[in-house]
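[Discussion] Sanity-checking designs against the backbone

I'm trying to build intuition for which residues belong where. Below is a structure token string of 461 positions. I'd appreciate it if someone posts a full sequence so I can compare it with mine line by line.
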């Protein structure tokens, strides 16, 4: 992982394509290309301009046989992705040309790159910090536009900048306190409120990153949205309206949906698993009882509950059970069947059972109000955070855990400080916070963590 020999790999996807790229990085890159690359203008590869495209041919040195016509891009250390001498050999995108180019590179001084090794070298050579390196995978694997935007922002270093801001607030405090401990006669102790003010600034940055972590996780991993309500309010109709297809069976017979139905959709760029459940009421038979049991379990486990009511009927005991069960979870109340002439439920009627939840009137049957509902779903899930602002959102569970550890250490430090306990204990807490923050950007990530992160990359990245 930490060698500085020369590595090579096919960096593009397998299969047939117009072009494909063999990537080489390390000190033997130029010597290797001098043997293999024949420039159309006759200039040896090692004398060609860097960061410029050069047309030529890859030939087998022993026989002189042509292997492929290619465009070569050279990079000289440190001005490359990895920070080393490097090259991208752009050949035709087929298994035979790329495979032959790669095996010639391997026969002339390179070894096969391990997964993520190019990006790992970029990290070790200081071209990217660890959070940026992790973003490379997220960019490649992004499935939605917001996920892509967030990953690219992380790659640009916006998350890292905020993490560094927190570190930079803590570091001078540590330095100062250590100086007062080591040289008590020479360095006057700053007043504790002043030290606390600085630690509080770091804590505020960490807390604001944590506040966005839920939205970040939802963009990356998706959200479980559970449709709940008593029988016949239109839950299955709503599922179908959100999916824009007839997935769940809809009838006017209460108790039609007896089990949990789960389908994927995208709402405002958020990957959603929409879960339709059995209607909640005192069950009439053991099968229905199991369905109701499962529906209640789904509510307890939801990222968002869509509590559906039939607006043409007065609120009943079963409706109230649903609303009360959704308490404490992010929820949107839906007044369905707004197309019917006589409406008997107003938004104010639900406030007592489920305070604070937004209320949206729709007709699942006619598909009206669905756009407003989707807006409300996205807003409630994200708590107002998203790629629309230019926030850096924490999307990784690893980063979230590190931030939580940092926040806990900073809280400890402030408590110690205000309790008047000796300052060396404050330093211990602050060092803990610095180590946790350094896990994110990589200053204090262990070899095992690095191996785990880069091991998840594919070869050639
Ligand atoms: N008028 C009207 N009827 C609806 C609406 N949504 C559902 N229904 C009807 O209500 C009945 C129950 O719908 P369904 O989706 O199976 O309800 P579920 O038991 O909650 O899953 C069916 O006859 C639907 O056609 C609506 O928005 N307006
Ligand atoms: Mg149903």
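Best answer:
Here's mine. Compare freely.
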């Amino acid at each position: 992982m930490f060698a500085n020999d020369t590595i090579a790999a096919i960096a593009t996807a397998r299969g047939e394509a117009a072009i494909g790229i063999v990537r080489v990085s390390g000190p033997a890159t130029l010597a290797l290309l001098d043997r293999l690359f024949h420039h159309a203008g006759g200039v040896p590869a090692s004398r060609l301009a860097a960061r410029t495209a050069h047309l030529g041919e890859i030939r087998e040195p022993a026989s002189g046989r042509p292997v492929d016509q290619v465009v070569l891009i050279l990079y000289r250390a440190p001005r490359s992705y990895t920070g080393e001498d490097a090259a991208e050999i752009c050949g035709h995108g087929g298994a035979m040309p790329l495979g032959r180019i790669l095996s010639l590179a391997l026969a002339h001084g390179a070894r096969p790159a391990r997964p993520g090794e190019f990006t790992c070298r970029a990290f070790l050579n200081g071209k990217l910090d660890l959070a940026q390196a992790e973003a490379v995978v997220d960019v490649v694997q992004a499935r939605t536009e917001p996920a892509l935007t967030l990953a690219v922002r992380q790659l640009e270093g916006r998350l890292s900048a905020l993490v560094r801001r927190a570190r930079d607030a803590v570091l001078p405090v540590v330095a100062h306190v250590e100086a007062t401990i080591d040289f008590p006669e020479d360095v006057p102790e700053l007043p504790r409120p002043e030290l606390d003010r600085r630690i509080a600034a770091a804590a505020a940055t960490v807390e604001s990153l944590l506040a966005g972590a839920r939205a970040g996780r939802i963009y990356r991993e998706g959200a479980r949205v559970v449709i709940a309500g008593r029988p016949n309010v239109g839950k299955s109709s709503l599922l179908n309206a959100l999916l824009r297809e007839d997935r769940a069976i809809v009838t006017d017979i209460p108790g039609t949906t007896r089990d949990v139905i789960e389908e994927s959709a995208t709402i405002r760029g958020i990957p959603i698993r929409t879960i339709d459940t059995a209607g909640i009421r005192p069950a009439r038979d053991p099968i229905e009882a199991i369905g109701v049991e499962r529906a209640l379990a789904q509510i307890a486990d939801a990222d968002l509950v869509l509590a559906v009511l039939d607006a043409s009927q007065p609120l009943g005991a079963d409706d109230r059970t649903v609303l009360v069960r959704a308490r404490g979870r992010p929820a949107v109340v839906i007044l369905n069947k707004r197309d019917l002439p006589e409406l008997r439920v107003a938004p104010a009627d639900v406030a007592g059972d489920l305070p604070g939840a937004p209320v949206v009137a729709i007709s699942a049957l006619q598909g009206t109000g669905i756009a407003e509902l989707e807006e409300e779903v996205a807003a409630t899930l994200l708590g107002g955070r998203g790629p629309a602002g230019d926030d850096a959102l924490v999307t990784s569970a690893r980063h979230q855990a590190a931030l939580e550890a940092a926040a806990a250490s900073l809280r400890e430090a402030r408590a110690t400080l205000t309790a008047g306990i000796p300052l060396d204990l404050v330093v211990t807490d602050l060092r803990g916070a610095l180590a946790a923050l350094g896990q994110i950007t990589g200053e204090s990530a262990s070899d095992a963590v690095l191996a785990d992160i880069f091991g998840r990359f594919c070869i050639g990245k």
